[in-house]
């Protein structure tokens, strides 16, 4: 990837380009850079764009916009928390914007959340530029500013659900798709626990090796892997995948869908997740199913 912000003297807006394969990518019109700070790990910026509001980027890669962030956060969180019969103890790796924590806190069964973010500047930018997006003060949440990989390695049989809310597997997130980290997640789960991770776009061939590595690691160390899809306009190709893995919980069970339906009936503020979307997201096109089937071999 080779993201950049390009100035065009004949246009009123600057232009942000994120290339995800060759010279194919995403272009946004930028009206203002409202936050820019180099952390020990990455360049954290917030751009005010002409059509997507504020956009958070890390080392020039789009993480979220205030217009479409709800898709990612709802779909990373609610499928697992609805499928699990009692998601009491959670661990969230990454997610410094606070959106995943926001969604977790909507579930009454949640008693505690260990939230591990390596880069405090991401939290700083999110609090300053995305008021109301994240939840940072729920008493059930304990925030740890440290490497999530090392944190998980110290845990054992503690969590019902682990949500891996990481960026692309480069830089500080490089190990989040790796076998050693997934094995540590499996050790940190209670019996019947669930691991969920974002897993990039099946349309981008350069993403396939990481997707296959993650699928194989989850199936080897956690259990049955259930990939699912959602539509996130500002992510490469707009089609994004996530993976849920458990040795006991079946996300296609009638319990999971009934639980999702009941949850959504009491949370009318949800904008993307529903029981029907949950069910449909697991219906994979044949080319996507084939990608994951090849990962299992």
Rg, Å, rounded? 18 Å
Average pLDDT across residues? 92
Named CATH architecture of the largest domain: 3-Layer(aba) Sandwich
- How many strands, which pairing sense, and closed or not: the largest β-sheet? 7 strands, mixed
By DSSP (H or I, 4+ residues per run), the number of helices equals 9
What is the general shape?
A: globular
What are the SSEs and their pairings?
Blueprint: E1 4-6, E2 14-21, E3 24-38, E4 43-49, E5 54-58, E6 61-65, H1 69-83, E7 89-94, H2 99-104, E8 112-117, H3 120-129, E9 141-145, H4 148-153, E10 159-165, H5 179-188, E11 189-198, H6 208-221, E12 224-231, E13 239-246, H7 254-265, H8 275-281, H9 286-296
Describe this structure in words.
- The chain is α/β, with parallel strands linked by helices.
- The protein folds into two domains: 4-64, Roll (Spermidine Synthase, Chain: A, domain 2); 69-296, Rossmann fold.
- Helix content is 31%, strand content 31%.
- It has nine helices and 13 strands.
- The chain has a seven-stranded mixed β-sheet.
- A hairpin with a 2-residue loop joins strand 2 (14-21) and strand 3.
- Helix 1 packs across helix 7, helix 6 crosses helix 9 (286-296) and helix 7 (254-265) runs antiparallel to helix 8 (275-281).
- The radius of gyration is 18 Å and the shape is globular.
- The chain starts with a strand and ends with a helix.
- Residues 1-10 have low confidence and may be disordered.
């Amino acid at each position: 990837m080779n993201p950049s912000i390009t100035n065009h003297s004949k246009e009123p807006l600057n232009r942000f380009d994120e290339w995800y394969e060759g010279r194919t990518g995403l272009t946004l019109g930028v009206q203002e850079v409202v936050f820019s700070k180099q952390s020990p790990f990455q360049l954290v910026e917030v751009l005010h764009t002409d059509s997507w509001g504020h956009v958070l980027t890390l080392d020039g890669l789009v993480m979220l916009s205030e217009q479409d962030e709800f898709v990612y956060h709802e779909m990373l969180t609610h499928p697992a928390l609805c499928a699990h019969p009692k998601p009491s103890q959670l661990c969230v790796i990454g997610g410094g914007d606070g959106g995943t924590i926001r969604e977790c806190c909507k579930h009454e069964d949640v008693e505690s959340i260990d939230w591990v973010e390596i880069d405090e500047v991401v939290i700083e930018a999110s609090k300053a530029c995305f008021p109301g997006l994240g939840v940072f003060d729920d008493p059930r949440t304990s925030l740890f500013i440290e490497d999530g990989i090392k944190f998980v390695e110290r845990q054992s049989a503690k969590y019902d659900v682990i949500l891996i809310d990481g960026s692309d597997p480069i830089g500080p997130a490089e190990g989040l798709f790796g076998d050693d980290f997934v094995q540590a997640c499996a050790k940190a789960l209670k019996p019947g626990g669930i691991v969920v991770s974002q897993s990039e776009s099946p349309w981008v061939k350069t993403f396939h090796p990481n997707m296959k590595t993650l699928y194989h690691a989850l199936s080897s160390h956690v259990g049955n892997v259930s990939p699912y899809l959602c539509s996130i306009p500002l992510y490469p190709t707009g089609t994004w995948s996530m993976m849920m893995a458990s040795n006991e919980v079946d996300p296609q069970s009638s319990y999971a869908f009934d639980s999702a339906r009941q949850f959504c009936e009491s949370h009318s503020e949800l904008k993307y997740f529903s029981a029907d979307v949950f069910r449909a997201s697991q219906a994979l096109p044949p080319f996507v199913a084939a990608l994951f089937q090849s990962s299992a071999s």
